[in-house]
């Protein structure tokens, strides 16, 4: 894995290690582009050692018990990449998103074939994080005033040769 320091000490540029791909056959991207449109979506679950692991290392039984009791406090630190457009095997447009987790967490809880419960839980956490990152608005949207007619121009230039007026609005 390659790491480059960028922008001082506040950012790392990391080349993640590939883990596995989650494919969604149809996601609704209409709110992002306007109009009803469905696309395939590929999520690359990757890992690196720079991202911190969860503060608690719990097994599937403990996680299931906590979820059954209503305790939703288990957190998995993840980094969500930008939405990208790629071509699938049929040369159709598809959505691609890279998701990054800690390498130790990945190897112990997501990589083993017997980790189906953790993978399903992680998929729910990841989908919520992607939705939150790509929300339509942040905070309350306030009312705005829009003039029905533009205000009177401050400067009016008259081109005598072409008999045209140019308005400069301030």
Automatic annotation (TrEMBL):
Domain PIH1 N-terminal: 3-139
InterPro entries: PIH1/Kintoun_subfamily, PIH1_N
GO cellular component labels: cytoplasm; R2TP complex; ribonucleoprotein complex
Pfam families linked: PIH1
Superkingdom of origin organism: Eukaryota
One GO biological process term: rRNA processing
Homology family: Belongs to the PIH1 family.
The protein's role, per its UniProt record: Involved in the assembly of C/D box small nucleolar ribonucleoprotein (snoRNP) particles. Recruits the SWI/SNF complex to the core promoter of rRNA genes and enhances pre-rRNA transcription. Mediates interaction of TELO2 with the R2TP complex which is necessary for the stability of MTOR and SMG1. Positively regulates the assembly and activity of the mTORC1 complex.
Protein name stated in the entry: PIH1 domain-containing protein
Upper taxonomic lineage: Eukaryota, Metazoa, Ecdysozoa, Nematoda, Chromadorea
